[in-house]
Amino acid sequence: MELFDMLGFGEQGWGLTLLLATLLTVALTLCGLLVGAVFGALVAAAKLSSRRSLRNAGELYSTVFRGIPELLVIYLFYFGGSTLITAIGQWFGAEGFIATPPFLVGTLAVGMISGSYQAEVYRGAYLAVSQGELEAARAIGMPTLMLARRILMPQIFRLSLPGLGNVWQMSLKDSALISVTGLAELMRSTQIAAGSTRQYFTFYIVGGLLYLVLTAMSNQVFHRAEKRMNQSQRRSLAGGH
Amino acid sequence: MDFAFLLNTMGKLLTALPTTLGLFFLSMLFGGLLSLVIVAMRVSPIPALRWFARAYVLVFRGSPLLIQLFLIYYGLGQFDAVRESLFWIVLREPYACAVLALALCTAGYTAEIVRGGMLAVPHGQIEAGLATGMSRWMLLRRVIAPIALRHCLPAYSTELVLLVKSTALASLVTVWDVTGVAQQIIQRTYRTMEVFVCAAAIYLLLNFLLVRAAAMLERHLSPHLRKRPQTTSTPEPLASTLG
């Protein structure tokens, strides 16, 4: 088969499948990042807490999710989730095995792993906010919620953007591991295409290139966002940004 | 809790530990050596070499390790030329393919870490070395390498932890490492949590030892940054001795 037919959008082509799979990968990573933002914020808050038990809990979360292979975490969620759901199902009278939806498993796994890295990003950003500003806000009698909304959050968001860019890249690559659950994201679709055409080399190269395009594009997006967020910042006289 | 099952699982997982350790050490060794070659290219005066090194780092850091591994294991075997060549002895083994993929990938990350460390060497010190008539090689050995190594170490220990975690992917090309065996036991028994806890304990212990070793090496390499031990006798004030 000709290369262009194989990769094209015709009946024999895998172009559309791979393109849709790329979109699924982006969706998966995006959802994972959002889930991770929730976990990351909670863990960062726990680590910065004045209570020892909370600090230890935060530390434990980081150690576990940063020290264990991502693949094991995915297995835990995939097989563990199915066992749990099947048990609940049987309790309600359902029969047989109930599988967990792979997208949900993937989002949760990618999210909780990226949460452990995001926690460090947020913690660093919080510590970089100048204490004087917080004191000034308290001195003029701002309530805590307003202080968080007006002083803390905007700065934490700006300061954590470069770190979040790295976490995003990492999550994008972690999302490829969700292919073991059978979810037809980019990695899995590449595998299917390679297997059914027996053109392994070509399709893995194409799949790899699509991932490269994704990472390059997201780099651009984060670069622009950083530039935009830093508009209000004082620039050095030397120029550049 | 079923301790007999936990013990049995732990025993089975520990038999796979040498495979995981072998994957880790071999890919660390080859990846480390390769990264030095890439850094040398990255800072070389020849534009083509610099360009190649940049492309290498971009490709291997920008795509998932899994796809690199499958490209090497399944992709290369597709060609008759590869199958008939001398390399086939290596490339037909899943273990060797896993080491190759891990080494190629970690080399990309390590090269950037080493380059970062080299950029941190103060320019004045290099100039001082040149001014005293050191050759390029001696300058590298006596001035640049020791300083760069100290700067690299924290980031490199993080990279090594990531490498330990990456060895788990070898299980997807039928290498029976700790994760592969764990997955097999989970599929047979469906006791996910117990098996996960055992496997997790092994990886956490490995990473803990790794981080401790790196911290000890860092301490060993930077004696000048440590606090001076308190001397028991207070030295005489300078003025009185000169008196």
List keywords for this structure.
heterodimer; A: 241 residues; mainly alpha; MetI-like fold; 9 helices; 77% helix; 0% strand; B: 243 residues; 12 helices
Please estimate the helix content of chain A.
over 70%
Characterize the quaternary organization of these chains. heterodimer
What's the overall geometry of chain A? Answer: flat
Contiguous low-pLDDT stretches of chain B (5 residues minimum) are none
**Count of the separate structural domains of chain B:** 1
Residues in β-strands, percent of chain B: under 5%
Secondary-structure-derived class of chain B? mainly alpha
CATH class of the domain at 30-183 in chain A: Mainly Alpha
- End-to-end separation of chain A in angstroms reads 50 Å
Rg of chain B: 24 Å
Average of the residue pLDDT scores of chain B: 89
Main sheet overview of chain A: none
- How many helices of chain A in DSSP terms? 9
Radius of gyration of CA atoms of chain A, rounded to a whole number: 22 Å
What is the CATH T-level topology of the domain at 30-183 in chain A?
Answer: MetI-like fold
What layout of secondary structure does this protein have?
The complex is a heterodimer of chains A (241) and B (243).
Chain A: H1 3-7, H2 15-48, H3 52-67, H4 70-91, H5 102-128, H6 131-139, H7 144-174, H8 186-197, H9 200-229
Chain B: H1 3-15, H2 17-42, H3 47-62, H4 65-75, H5 80-84, H6 88-91, H7 94-119, H8 123-131, H9 136-166, H10 178-189, H11 192-221, H12 238-242
